[in-house]
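ok so i was messing around last nite and threw this chain in just to see what happens. nothing serious, just curious
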Amino acid sequence: MTTFSEWQRGDGRESAEDYSIPEDAREFQGERAGFATRFLASVIDVALVALLMMSIWLGIEILQLIFTPGVEVHPPRAATLVLWGYLFTTFYWTVAWATSGRSLGARFMGVRVVSRKGERVHWPVALARAAFSVGFPIGLAWALISKRNRSVQDVVLRTIVIYDWSLRAPLVIGSKHPT
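result:
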């Protein structure tokens, strides 16, 4: 198994996958992602969830108007939609981080969540990280002062967020180099 440090050093070989990575981004591949990139990825994800929640609210409004005309309807309260948003975001990030290591926002920003060994994050860790990130979003600010660009969530759960523009999720980061 290749450790994060070994993968980061690399062995000088390029695989066909490396050619799919923009040339300017190749030098950052595998480096720890900074605060701004991670923040923007989170903003994209939260905006997508907010759009989904507004669509659900609008859909409920329209369905109630169609099927119960003339009856006073009560759409979900804002607090209910916010709670659903928190729950959905936790579910969304859990699935994203446990399967591919990245959400849509992370894919757009070219980052991936991995374990400290460079492996895919396991389901319990992904769930804990998602719940921690939703419940304590200010924890990301620790990456501003951390020399290793780690959030509070990363420190507690031993995860790393790296730049990774590759299209497939490796089982181990080091698998990008052919053996």
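not much to say yet. The longest strand covers residues 111-115.
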